[in-house]
Amino acid sequence: MTTLTVAVRRRSAWRPAAGVLGVVALLVIVGFVVPAVFSVFWVRSFTTSAIYAIACAGVGLLYGRLGLVSLGQIALVGVGGWITLRLGYGTGLPYPILLLLAGAGTCVIGVMVGIPSLRLSGLNLAIVTLMFAGAFAIVFNATGFPNGGGGFLGRATGSVQRLALERPTLGRGDGGYFRYVLMVAALMFGLLALHVRSRPGRQWAAIRQSEAGALASGVDTTRSKLWALAVVSFTTGVAGGLLAANAGVLDPGNFGASESIVLFAVVLIGGAFSLLGGVLGGLLSQAFPSLLDEIGVNGNLILLVFGVGLVHAVSTAPQGIAGQLQGLAALVRRRVGALEDG
Amino acid sequence: MLTRTSSRLLAPIAVTGLMLGLAACGGSSGDSSDSDVGKLDTSSSALKCGLGNGKAASGTPIKIRAMATASGGIDFSSAPRSAAAFFKCVNANGGINGRPIDYAYEDDALNQQKAAQIAAKFAADRSIVALAGDATFIGCGAANPVYKKADLYSITGTGVPQSCFESSNIAPVNAGPRISTVATMQYLQGAGKADRVGQVSNKVPGVGDWSQAGAIAYARKSDGGAKVVKSILHDPTALDANSIVLGLKNADPSAVILEDPAPMGAAVLKAALTQGLSKKYAWTCLSSCYDASFPKQIGPQWEGFISNSELQLVDAKTPDNILWRSVLQKYGTAKDPRDTFGQSGFLAAKILTDTLLKMDPKNITRDTVSKAVVGITNYKSDILCAPWYYGEADAHNANHTTRMAVVKGGKYVELQGCQAAKDPALAPILAREKSEGLVG
Amino acid sequence: MLKPFIVTGLAVGSLYALSGLGMLVLYRTTGVLNLAYGALGAMAALISWELIQQGTEQWPSYAVGVGAATAASLCYGGLLGPYLAERESVVKATASLGFALAILGVLNWYWTDDTRTLTLPTDTSGFDVVDVRVSTTQLIALALAVVVAVGTSVYLRASGTGTEMRALADDRELTSMLGVRVRRVEALAWGVSGALAGVSGLLLADLTQLTANSLTFLVIPALAACVVGRFRSLGWTLFGGLLVGVLEAVGTPYDWIADYRSAAPFVVAIVVVLYLQRHKTVTIGAAR
């Protein structure tokens, strides 16, 4: 006689809380172990990886949860950075307030750009975002980034000693700033995760599955998409603010259309369907090139890696490295479970 | 399952293999023959680098580093490569009083955050005593605050943006695009062609606007001898050279100064040729166009095209210049470009070497080297027009005397020898030179 | 005062139109928007330049360059056609972006930052229009754009293979079930597109700059031409490219807008897309 063993997993209220505690513990460990073990170069590399991970998570959320291809996110990072620099020099506000204002300002701009584009989907949206990326690049080149001067643009000309934005008091040193960035990144990821796991996330899943079906079940698709755009723009703006204080200066050349395209590429390679993919995307775009430098590979060839990786991710492995890792983890769990049961 | 996984792994493995294979091969060679300077004597007796005693150095290495933009669309790496060749020569000739130099450079890939990272790396490694031969396009602004805190000084090979010339811990050996522009204005005034000058540059902040401001400031101080009638600042990605040329044509200039990077300069020149304006105005360019391959690329119709040269002409047969070419031939590779970047890297390395040689070899630390570097005064070389110095200041622009070159017979030859650029913004620097006796 | 700029605007507009049409031709025939179009052109131009520098005759060098672009295009289309056939068009376009990045990386690695110019034999002749000299090369670029627009339109509508291509773009699986040799038709489309990319690349390198970055990212403003053509009409794409070029050029004499005139293609594209989609209906399709 065969016994049908049905494994019933009781949904305990412990699990989400335990998950969060686990992640926090991991971040605390990482925040203290990494600066102790790695050199300054790598600590800073991981800092920018964490900053870009926030931007990657945003892109991933838009693509993975909503099917919206945004090829202009780096422009939003630039906007956040611009606001942080201008307000940082112009006012004496504490750094966390600067970040909030940068996020809010970027949110406004993102939504303004997004409202007319929300009716678009697929190729049209991708092209419009690419056009915005190009337009923003020209504006950044024309206005430059604030560096301590006056006026709306905040550009200091002549031989005024150019200023570098001061880092927050909690994160002056490189190790301290790494922990600060980790903390802010965790908050941003938490914000995104909260959305994904609650009602907005379910609405987004419904929209991705079938927009008509979502509408039919009473989801206000426009408002839902707009909310996603607002949240993602906010987090991306905060990332821009973190970037501004990282080196103290920003260069318009680093906020062009090609950078937005590379950002999308690393998100897809890392995995657009999970927040872990965002982390991997950040590491890929910031830490991996340095690793290749150590081996002695020419810096231009990193584009070859990203390009082939993007083609591969898009055509055969749409869930990216993160997805494959999670698939592996699920496989292990199933095997362990089978061993336990059987 | 296994075959699906293996097929998914196939592409990354393939591309990694392709990449490592490509990395093993070289790239396209630039202009790197030495035929323009004739036969070079690369025997050890002729190559007097450093102590020049032919003995290999074997003591504790002295760590020197550099930051350069070597990928991402710009390649200034020939500066640290020439510096590396020179340091190899020094190591083969007794080193720094017996101690060899351990030199390498890092690529910032045109990414400012990476430049800040590299700067932090250099700053944190106290065994790095100084930087020499740097050539970064976006790194100076991000790096200087880091260097300042760490008491690390850089004898930069080639600087381009304003931030490289207005930093406390960075001193380039080249003159910069603003001085280059002013010097060109000065030459045009001397040739009677500066009554209506048009200028074109791209809108990179701290580069294009800075050099254009130099021309305008010079014109204002010239009491009518020079006048700027048109300043075009275009987006770096602009494709439309024809409209730029037409914009210039509308202003009817007497001369045009191209302050763009060389590829854009070549595109403007081509459009000018098409529009039949090549003989109508005096066409000039900054030292970005002063490259041995440029005359061939712009074609034979541009005889008489004038460029500014911030250092000695690359094919001059003066001792330091010949030393550079010989060192590069012996200790560099055939692919290392023999251009002004290389010259600047070599010179920076030489300046640092001569400074280190004056120090006690047992007491070479960052503190002592920084003090010595800041104290460099009155350094003479035939690659420069005037003595070079470092000095304790918030701005470093020791090289403000340049030459002019002209295309004759398909190659650049000297048009005008050393002329000090009369940039009004140099006043505080000139005052300091006098009061502190920096140029002897 | 503006007339000369209209002429130069038409000249640069024909470049946008040529790139836009090249991309649209492949889109109409396979459903793939090949954003690597510019990169393939850069590859052709740089390979031709390298051969000419080494001493090879001009026309064989150009042929090799265009041939390389055609071969690369065929490889990509042949390898990835089946994988991406069922995916939505934005996914196919994204994949082609990856292809573009890969080519750009290799081009920048091999041909480092140096001044290069490509001088086609047609550069020296030309004629005057409203005080502006138009070189024969510019005329060829415009003529090629018109020929591509008209020729492709006629071919797709009138010839058998053209109809097969249109069917292929619509639904690959259905078309193969109808007995059409899908792989062959696809190969023809990719090959022609690659050759067109190569020839455009040579013309663009001659008329703008021979740098891998500028040629590769020229596709972004060129997309504005496709947008005006609604990714369907070749004639409107031609018009759109010219319009965008003219709008960009006529900003030159006005100082207040001159700084931002390079944004003209992007602004036009954004406005046109948003306007055309203003009455959008909800898609009934499911996510794939």
Question: Strands across the major sheet of chain C, in which order?
Answer: 1-2
| Strands of chain C, count | 2
Question: Care to count the β-strands of chain A?
Answer: 0
- Provide the β-strand percentage band of chain A: under 5%
CATH architecture of chain C: Orthogonal Bundle
Class derived from helix and strand content of chain C = mainly alpha
Runs of chain A in which pLDDT lies below 50 for 5 or more consecutive residues are none
CATH class categorisation of chain C = Mainly Alpha
Kindly provide the radius of gyration of chain A, computed on alpha-carbon positions and rounded to a whole number of angstroms. 21 Å
Shape of chain C: globular
Largest sheet of chain C: 2 strands, antiparallel
CATH topology of chain C: ABC transporter involved in vitamin B12 uptake, BtuC
Q: What's the multimeric state? A: heterotrimer
Low-confidence stretches of chain C: 284-288
Total number of helices of chain A: 13
Please state the overall shape of chain A, judged from the principal axes of the Cα atoms.
globular
Layout of strands and helices, then pairs:
The complex is a heterotrimer of chains A (342), B (440) and C (288).
Chain A: H1 14-37, H2 40-66, H3 73-90, H4 95-117, H5 123-143, H6 174-197, H7 199-209, H8 211-216, H9 221-247, H10 257-270, H11 275-295, H12 301-315, H13 320-341
Chain B: H1 2-24, E1 62-68, H2 78-91, E2 101-107, H3 112-124, E3 128-132, H4 139-150, E4 154-156, H5 162-165, E5 170-172, H6 177-190, E6 197-202, H7 208-221, E7 228-234, H8 241-251, E8 255-258, H9 262-274, E9 282-285, H10 294-298, E10 306-309, H11 319-331, H12 340-357, H13 366-374, E11 401-408, E12 411-420, H14 427-436
Parallel strand pairs in B: 1-2, 1-3, 3-4, 4-5, 6-7, 6-8, 8-9, 9-10
Antiparallel strand pairs in B: 10-11, 11-12
Chain C: H1 3-30, H2 37-54, H3 58-84, H4 89-110, E1 126-129, E2 132-135, H5 136-158, H6 160-170, H7 172-177, H8 182-207, H9 212-216, H10 219-228, H11 234-250, H12 255-258, H13 264-276
Antiparallel strand pairs in C: 1-2
